[in-house]
């Protein structure tokens, strides 16, 4: 996102970078769908996935616009709240019971990222408060997106039965076929790309000179450089999308586990930012520091703790499923019944 901003490609109204953000999952997702011979899901499931896509577009637009305004450090701190939001929404909608150790891991992850608030590299100035608000709202919405994707992919029937009726109607009841990882990537990527392509044709194209070409010229960005930046943006999100949906469907803990991995991703932003941008662009907020190192160690420890207890929970669930149901105990006759028989 910093590269897009420095290259003059990050106008918050045009959202050109968001078109490329969804381009990778759309194109490769459809190709994988054809190779996997899975076919398209039913139209009701396509519409459900499309509705989640529109919600996620709004969430990601808020997040990346806020990141451009507030800078990578504040973005990483606030974006870590995805972990907490995902756990909360999983508890409310999926009735998911987390072990105390899992909650401790979540708190450690968030606390580790909050350590950066004491670092003197946190940006201050105009636009930061606005960016902070956008990332806060976007993080909460993105946490809910995790849970909604898990519902349409892998939620068991007994959990679907316990959900409110209105949610079953929106996300599909227990008799509805679930989406595979490839299907969800393809459908959501295609609808997101199509929606943003329409926006580029309707809004950006008539204002191309003012909002895109002139900022590119002022930043000294050539067309080939812009293509490389936006292409890299698309490739990075392709890897992200496939990892994200695979975690939701196959990793123990589902949406909550994916949310915790977001916390680890946010800290790794510090490492990448320091390596590529420290002393090159921006100010001290781009550089690594002892506080950020402490944050990295704390978050990795929280992720590891969460993983240990998630595996423990998964093992206990398998044992419960494999153990035979308890046999009913014969009722003992009361003294009065035995006297009556005599």
From TrEMBL:
Pfam families listed in its UniProt record: EamA (PF00892)
Isomerase as UniProt keyword: no
Highest taxon of source: Eukaryota
Transmembrane segments: 16-33, 74-94, 101-118, 130-155, 186-206, 226-247, 259-277, 293-310
Residue ranges constituting the EamA domain according to the UniProt record: 18-117
GO cellular component, one term: membrane
SUPFAM superfamilies per record: Multidrug resistance efflux transporter EmrE (SSF103481)
Region (Disordered) residue spans: 316-342
Keywords: Membrane, Transmembrane, Transmembrane helix
PANTHER family: PTHR13146, SUGAR PHOSPHATE TRANSPORTER DOMAIN-CONTAINING PROTEIN
Name by which UniProt lists this protein: Transporter permease protein
Source organism per UniProt: Seminavis robusta
